[in-house]
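Researcher: Hi, I'm a grad student and pretty new to this. My advisor asked me to get structures for two proteins we've been looking at. I'm not sure of the right format, so I'll just paste the first sequence and hope you can take it from there.
Model: That works fine. Here's the first sequence with its structure tokens right after it:
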Amino acid sequence: MPGPGAYLFGKEEMEAVVEVMKSGYLFRYGSENDPKFLHKVSTLEKEFAKYCEAKFALATTSGTASLVASVFALGLKPGDEIIVPAYTFVASYTSIIFAGMVPVLAEINESLTLDPDDIERKITPRTKAIMPVHMLGNPCDMDRIMSIAKKHKLLVVEDSCQAAGATYKGKKVGTIGNIGTFSLNIFKTINSGDGGLVVTNDDILYETAFGVHDQGHKPCRLGLEVGNRNILGLNFRMNELTAAVALAQLGKIDKILATLREKRSKFKKLISEANGFKFRTLNDPEGDCATICTVIFDTKEQAAKVSKMLCSKTVDNSGWHVYHNMEHVLNHLKNVGQPHTKGSYPKTDDILSRAMNISVGVVDGGLGSGWGININSTDAEIESAAKQFIIACKSI
């Protein structure tokens, strides 16, 4: 059950991997004078930065690694608070926790992204940053979020892991705040099995994130550095094979997004004749990735019945993207006084109980999007799925 990029694996990815394997050089660092070193990782960083119109990009082992490196790069102190939405993947919370900081949850709205109206209610003297999550490929209301951040002098780290290629008012997500993160795992817009990226226009944030991702080293594209390290780091380095696949996928990203938008538009138009639901709010309809079609029913009873008839489930019953399903995070947050049990965020609970995610490009039961269409669905298959949905709605 992959994301759209996986459906388009082909000769480009195969040839890129074979090229690296034949070179016999899989490590991200090497000498330009060595013909075996193809510098796929540094090329990916350069090309992704160019694609996002960002000054810097950093390749990592995963979206989670990108979040960890970015949160550490903010230079905050243990106990500082970062506001995050109550609907997101678990890594948004755990990256903050591993950095010694406290995730403070806020409500979502009917875009299924962070509700700006709730952000200011969650700000305390310990609040130092906001982590908007462009959930399910839908950009957050970044104008309002950035306005709040500026007013309260807060940093903004964008979790764009589910939204590679999305834009908000003409700007690529991930480049609007101070630093942004992306995932390349199998469920994402483009993927290399696993992997991640960080983007920023800030020299210091880039240098620090680089050090965190590689044992404290300063940025160096082609060779290993010795000395001059002033921060501690870990190992989140991407290898040449992963980068080779990611580069091939990056070359397909615009085609992927255009195809998804076209297919979702057809599907939405077809099911619009049914009653009892509305589509989720898109903060920038032109910039949304269209990986998911989310419908919000009038009542949770309707949502439960329709989703059951289609062998799917409501979003609140999906996996680790719903705050109260994260028992290990719940246990941790009890110790820092943050509510995390079901009912703590009633607006979020209500929306998710009435929402159903229909797959368009991301077919993922863990997101509640195990039913729907995919990037390769024909017009006939789109029409068939729409008919099933309409019948289910009319039956209740």
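Researcher: Oh nice, that was easy. Here's the second one.
Model: And its structure:
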Amino acid sequence: MIHVVANTRLPSEKANGSQTMKTAEALAVEMGRLVLWAPARFPPPEVRGVRDPFAYHGARRNFRLRLLPSFDLVTPIARSLPPFLGRLVFYLQGASFSVLAAAMASVSPGELWYTRDVYFFLLFAPLASRLGKRVVLEAHHDLPALGGWTRRVLASCDGLVAITRGLARSLAESGADPRRILVLPDGVDLAPFRGLPSREEARRNLGLDPSRPTVVYAGHLYPWKGIDTLVLAAPRVPEALFLVVGGTPDDRRRIERAAAREGAENVVLTGHVPPTRVPLHLAAADCLVLPNSGREPISRLYTSPLKLFEYLAAGRPIVASDLPSLAEVLAHERTALLVPPDDALALAGGVRRILSDAPLAGRLAAEGRTLAERFTWERRACRLARYLKTGETRDE
């Protein structure tokens, strides 16, 4: 039996919920019996009323989901608190879940514990070998600076998975043996992208003008995602509709204010869209944009965005920021146009080039769709299972 531990609200309006569920689903196929441990938390407005995380995230019921209590005041009150108290509430939730998950791991049957929760990892890894258990971390960001403790845990743990090469280097700098780190980007479920409608049909289904060029961004609207650059670029391509799919109410209000300030009347925000509806929105696009900022390490070095692989699977041309994290997957003028990050003129120029050069757009879309075949959740789980069983880190 394998146990997966993730401090991820399920169902979740964020990509980490889908990543957790699809990882568990695919890994259960490769490894057999699997239990996913996650916190029981208050739902935000976007998923309030959703009762079935399997259906919401499009995952098969081939594993068991167990929810643990945690001290969760994040959704009810954190947004109304001053920043310091909001962060305190956030850390209390994470700490309470990690401590309880470590306690459950200590007494539950099952040798292998696979986690994306850094604090569970730092708590449980020192105990695991004494209890005859193994613990492996899937890192999605750099580790907290806890001095010698972090270094000792990394040196003695049973395995490390990094979603980018930049993150693998960070783990090595923190004390991990680089020869034992598996670099494994995120993935995509290709099934929802088979048989997508034409651009015009998708636009009609969404109530959009089928004849107007359409540029789509799908995902959250955090500043490091580069959405502010998109807002600045949009007025420079006035003939196109810029459709922004997703985001929390607070972030949408911020972007709406920015669009009004910049005269970006061609920016339309949909609000939250369930994961199963995202492919239809991507199908409506003449161009998909991934305008990540280069100002923060999480964007520049550590992120492996689910939207990147969904964009590829949708078979639409991509304009993306030329960042190490994204260039690990994308190749300029082969599978995407890569433009300087945080540069609205460059982003607008890339979009205009896609809209005006049909052969280029078609070639990028076709090469991208072929590339998506290499990044399915099934292939990812197969490689991960081999690593968990043998420690093999070489590329296929």
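Researcher: Is there anything I should tell my advisor about the second?
Model: You could mention this: The chain has 17 helices and 13 strands.
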